């Protein structure tokens, strides 16, 4: 369903409320911890044989870290399989009927390791026990219970080779050595490694081979601005399905001829947004539909069974977004998750032949959806005529005509986008009485190639203008109190916070920078080794430290510290591999020397954002106190 809001009147409601004659309701008093504590249960999956259900939940004796549990469908007895105490697991998956894999790093350093354990708790081992490596899953080989394909950068930290990994003892067999330019690998439906994607920072290529005995050969070469992204092989393993924006603005779904190296049949396109996702039934070997995102997720079904399944679920769970989270191989059992902008979500088990839906767990049963705020899609026009889409969340006690303190919240990335749905920090801020404004500024993905390319070399320039224009739009619409506007963001959003306070110092009363970039020069110098293939691309998208020296200097908040006058709160993980701690250290030191109020929170057991529950509590509590001090 497409919902494009053309007027702020649609956001704040059509009824007329007179502030003088109506007493404003108090906001519900919700403890901070209720927004940010780990879910009661999450990440439900069904075992391959359909006999067990697995999930993650906090382990009370393990500092409430998220661990993996399983339970037989025939019993209520649950078994905890993992022992994480220092840091919650990032995720897990079933390797076979008797063994699961789980993913973990140390302190947020993103040196990802893959572990495995039997469902009786035995043979719990690190499958990738190497120092300073990042493991990636290439293919879980669902039809091979003893092996998976993984990528490891243990030989060269900049690139990943592919190994066949024995999930029982960790034995590795090298099956594809990276020559130094391969950025990704892909298997066919039989689990054979037949596609490689390369990058030299400017040009990208797709390499192909008929079998694992053959050498890879280049079948397509494009500039990085043209994206031909392999999704999966056709069921006969002779062609690919791809998402491509070659010779067009919006990425669309095509078949791709592997011998001739070009797109053939157009499967689906959308006039307004990119389409990246194609759905299939492995059992029935058919394409079932596509999904795409406007302001919310939408579907186009080609398979009546899958369409009817969606309709049935939406009828059983009305007034929320319903997603199929998992489906058994025989397509008789499903895990369903239902959520909204006001609900973190609920998991269900669906017995398809019996048409029986069973509730498994609410993620946050302690939160009342009626006390949560609505996230409304909005759009506005930038000063140079671009349409910028975003979301506005207003407190539940908002009365039309109120001028609110506003938290401007640009997303990280920057080449991602914000989505509609439940967001704990936005609900927390709305519960404190703030309006929260998110915008998909130029460069945000999903809106076509031209919109993305308009962000190139525009950090602190037109990208920042899109944020400023949105703030001015909110003021003009009478929603924002112009004297009570803060800016808060993480990663690139942290950079945008610093840029906002630096280059538009009269707009913001204060700012919160969370793991943000302060200097484009030092940021470029400290990228993780596995980003090295993309360095030249980053130079073209952000700026070259020598050729574009003046541009980068003009966009680096650290070099314009004299312009910052608003109070600033900074938070940083000590082990952050993407935005090094030095990025925050250097601007804190410069601001303190200038006499600016700059509380600085560093967590020694965190990386690019805080993951542990107690650290999130600390951060949001201090941020809440900081915003209250300067906005109220």
Keywords:
single chain, 632 residues, alpha+beta, Rossmann fold, 5 domains, eight-stranded mixed β-sheet, four-stranded antiparallel β-sheet, 12 helices, globular, disordered N terminus
Report on the structure:
The structure is a single chain. By secondary structure, this protein is α+β, with helices and mostly antiparallel strands. It has 5 domains: about 10-30 and about 375-630, Rossmann fold, CATH 3.40.50; about 40-125; about 130-225; about 225-300; about 305-365. Helix content is about 20%, strand content about 35%. The protein has 12 helices and 35 strands. It has an 8-stranded mixed β-sheet with strand order 28-29-31-30-32-33-34-35, with helices on both faces. The longest helix has 19 residues, at about 615-630. Mean pLDDT is about 95; it is low at about 1-20.
Short note summarizing the structure:
The protein is α+β, with helices and mostly antiparallel strands and about 625 residues long.
Layout of helices and strands:
Blueprint lengths: L7 H5 L19 H5 L5 E5 L5 E8 L5 E8 L5 E3 L10 E6 L2 E6 L8 E6 L6 E2 L9 E4 L7 E6 L8 E6 L5 E5 L5 E6 L5 E7 L3 E6 L8 E7 L4 E6 L5 E6 L7 E6 L4 E7 L8 E5 L4 E8 L3 E5 L2 H13 L4 E7 L5 E7 L6 E6 L4 E7 L12 E7 L5 E7 L10 E5 L15 H8 L3 E6 L8 H5 L8 H15 L3 E11 L1 H12 L6 E5 L5 H6 L9 H7 L7 H7 L12 E6 L7 H14 L5 E4 L9 H19 L1
Parallel strand pairs: 30-31, 30-32, 32-33, 33-34, 34-35
Antiparallel strand pairs: 1-2, 2-3, 3-4, 5-6, 6-7, 7-8, 9-10, 10-11, 11-12, 13-14, 14-15, 15-16, 17-18, 18-19, 19-20, 21-22, 22-23, 24-25, 25-26, 26-27, 28-29, 29-31
